[in-house]
Design goal:
It is built from 7 helices and 11 strands. The chain is α/β, with parallel strands linked by helices. Strand 2, helix 3 and strand 3 form a beta-alpha-beta unit. The structure holds 2-(butanoylamino)-2-deoxy-beta-D-glucopyranose. It is a single-pass type II membrane protein.
Length: 278
């Protein structure tokens, strides 16, 4: 358990929750792909979710304090599907969690920098010890795929339907990853310079390896995901160059040099929304 969980147990006289709750072998219903705004509003009340999309078990103290960071723009329908599926999923895993949606206001999309912003902003709200950096279009199929941090950084989405449930290459570290706060700090987060599609996840992989860590993955049968359909992004032309020179910037480009402007923060019923100008 994290030091914080132990402290809370002492204060609250509640027991610690199991590290991995029982009953996760069952699978969850399929994501409902026709979620309406009405469904979303009612879900928050029905599931006792705190404003801003946060929740924790009431009967015990979760050992996992997890910030789930979703970079976002222009995918509202996918976000609804994601949220209405993920809240029940995360609750069954007995996590103390909050979902952050980090929306980029303008310019070429910068997934990695949005992750850095989510990290920095989440820590202002709560001392999360575990971070999950997650695309909005990925739906985990197995409840046994714990949304918590392992000792080593974990590539979570290693078995995705669109890749016919195969890992395309060994170094792939995209889609959804789980990493401890102190490890993320150690690798200086993501690079901030990857605008457009591709490469930022490969650079993040190099950062982790460079700091002497090794990735882990759950077995393919557990790490199974469905990707929601969307049009293909155009890969950026700079991605090869940025990736090649990446190593020179590990220490000088990341959370320690992060600059951004928060335009709006709203605590919506199912998520904390942060609109940012990068
Ligand atoms: C790779 C991309 C990743 C992406 C995976 C899976 C690059 C860098 C130049 C080699 N990497 O090719 O960013 O997550 O495909 O789609 O484009």
């Amino acid at each position: 358990p994290s030091p914080r969980a132990i402290a809370v147990v002492k204060e609250s006289a509640k027991p610690l929750c199991l590290l991995i709750p029982n009953g996760l072998e069952t699978s969850l219903h399929h994501p409902n792909e026709s979620v309406t705004e009405y469904d979303i509003k009612h879900l928050a009340r029905r599931l006792n979710i705190e404003e801003g999309g946060a929740w924790q078990p009431s009967e015990c103290v979760s050992q996992h304090q997890v910030a789930i960071i979703i970079p976002f723009r222009n995918r509202t329908v996918q976000l609804w599907i994601f949220l209405s599926y993920m809240h029940p999923f995360l609750q069954k895993q007995m996590l103390n969690y909050r979902i952050f949606v980090i929306e980029q206001m303008k310019g070429a999309f910068n997934r990695a920098k949005l992750f850095n912003v989510g990290y920095a902003e989440a820590l202002k709200i709560f001392p999360y010890h575990c971070f999950i950096f997650h695309d909005v279009d990925l739906i985990p199929q197995k409840l046994s795929n714990m949304y918590a941090c392992t000792r080593q950084p974990r590539h979570m989405s290693s078995s995705v339907n669109t890749f016919r449930y195969n890992l395309p290459y060994k170094e792939l570290f995209g889609g959804a990853v789980a990493i401890l706060q102190k490890q993320f700090e150690l690798v200086n987060g993501f690079s901030n310079i990857f605008y457009g599609w591709g490469g930022e996840d490969d650079d993040f992989h190099s950062r982790v390896i460079n700091r002497g860590m090794t990735l882990c993955r759950f077995p393919p049968d557990v790490a199974r995901y469905t990707m929601l359909a969307h049009s293909k992004e155009l890969p950026s032309e700079n991605r090869f160059m940025n990736l090649k020179s990446g190593r020179d910037r590990f220490a000088t480009d990341g959370v320690n040099t992060l600059q951004y402007t928060i335009m709006k923060v709203v605590y919506y019923p199912l998520y904390t929304w942060i609109l940012v100008d990068l």
